[in-house]
Design brief:
5-stranded antiparallel beta sheet; single chain; corticosterone 18-monooxygenase activity; Cyt_P450; Cyt_P450_E_grp-I; heme binding; two-stranded antiparallel ribbon; iron; alpha+beta
């Protein structure tokens, strides 16, 4: 990614773009920011600002929320958030206000200010909910308690013991993906391939995540995927595409403004949940056959443990399906792009992989631990090219008010 030139000091990388979104307003204070009565930043960070100033003095990008939303739709700004924010930061400075539809936000540029805000979030970070997703859950009565559910899910999803169980599943799909790409190369008479890898990586990540979550292969890396698998991947794509326009409008308003888009969104989620129902039925059938039990994915483990209600398991696994595809495909794409631009690093990583495999360990986690350069390359990609334009967090702090304070910070 190209570096962003700050109006104030030096060069700020693209990853240093932050957004602070208000979800409720009251006379409150977060770190060095006092809102909405006063806002305060160190004068070295904000040119022309000494001490505190009135909240309304923060530079603002338009005052009409619905006109701003119309401009977003007209210019397709949903697909170019980072360009829109970059332009506004250059025009308005490192902190500015913006209202788009039902969202009122303050966008912060400097990493120091975002760090100051993150310090207030406490030991239980929370992200802003997506209204269209929550509306679907409410309409279909799919219940999901974020914190209590995640504490149970963590044992199977991100703990070292849990990840060791499904690593072989991911490795199998990775090997199939490499074979798939080799087949594409062999089809070309030149023995090489020039292609936009995003769609192939999207299929790979959906295949891998579905195998780890549900214990079933979709067959998306085959020459002719099954119709039901094709329907599932289309539903995931539609859900992600329709989420962006729905972000800035309450679902009730969207049903009136653009009912077709809303219905597409609901139908896509229904297809995803139907896939989860089918997988649950298959798992129960395996249980009833009385075969010797072996590891068959995260969902099966959750069902056996019975620590979560069935509906919570289904809701959480479908959200992991939705949240783990694009956010994995994009970092992989950017990593491959950077390796292509830095062939010496690519050669070093290839040698590291060969040496790790030559050690002869059959435990995949030990093989991965022997690849620090590969891990470093992936971490650097996540640092320099974040998958989405916004990573939202809700901050809660009560000061001089009977109401809680909800703030979302995006990186």
């Amino acid at each position: 990614m190209n570096n962003q030139i700050s109006l104030f000091k030096g060069i700020i990388p693209h990853s240093a773009v932050f957004q602070l979104t208000f979800l409720s307003l009251g006379p409150w204070k977060v770190g060095g920011l006092q809102l909405p009565g006063f806002w305060e930043l160190k004068s070295t960070r904000l040119q022309g600002c000494q001490g505190s100033g009135p909240f309304e003095a923060i530079p603002r990008n338009g005052h009409n929320a619905w006109l701003n939303l119309f401009q977003f739709w007209r210019t397709n700004a949903f697909q170019n958030f980072h360009h829109v924010m970059d332009r506004n930061f250059q025009n308005l400075g490192p902190i500015y206000r913006e209202t788009v539809g039902s969202h009122d936000s303050v966008n912060v540029f400097l990493p120091q200010d975002a760090a100051q805000l993150f310090q207030t979030e406490g030991i239980f970070p929370r992200r802003m909910g997506i209204d269209s997703w929550l509306a679907h859950r409410a309409l279909r009565n799919h219940k999901c308690e974020w914190r209590s559910d995640r504490l149970i899910l963590n044992k199977e999803v991100i703990s070292p013991a849990g990840t060791r169980k499904f690593l072989p599943f991911l490795n199998t799909v990775a090997e199939d993906f490499v074979a798939f790409m080799y087949r594409q190369v062999r089809k070309n008479t030149r023995g090489s391939l020039t292609v936009d890898l995003y769609h192939d990586l999207f299929r790979f990540t959906l295949e891998a995540s579905s195998y780890a979550l549900y214990g079933e292969r979709l067959g998306l890396l085959e020459e002719s995927p099954k119709p039901e698998s094709q329907e599932f991947i289309s539903a995931v794509e539609t859900m992600l595409q329709t989420t962006l326009p729905l972000l800035f409008l309450p679902p009730g308003v969207m049903r009136w403004v653009n009912n077709k888009l809303w219905q597409q969104h609901l139908k896509a989620w229904d297809t995803i949940f139907h896939h989860a129902d089918k997988c649950i039925q298959n798992i129960y059938q395996e249980f009833c056959l009385g075969k010797p039990r072996k590891y068959s994915g995260i969902m099966a483990e959750l069902l056996v443990q019975a620590e979560l209600p069935l509906d919570s398991i289904k809701a959480n696994v479908t959200e992991l399906t939705a949240g783990g595809v694009d956010t994995t495909a994009m970092p992989l794409l950017f990593t491959l792009f950077e390796l292509a631009r830095n062939p010496q690093v690519q050669t070093a990583i290839r040698e590291e992989i060969r040496e790790a495999q030559a050690q002869g360990s059959k435990e995949l986690s030990k093989v991965l631990n022997a690849m620090p350069l590969l891990k470093g390359a992936l971490k650097e990609t996540l640092r320099s090219s974040t998958p989405p334009p916004h990573l939202k967090r809700n901050l809660f702090q009560m000061q001089n008010t009977s109401r809680g304070v909800s703030v979302s910070v995006s990186v």
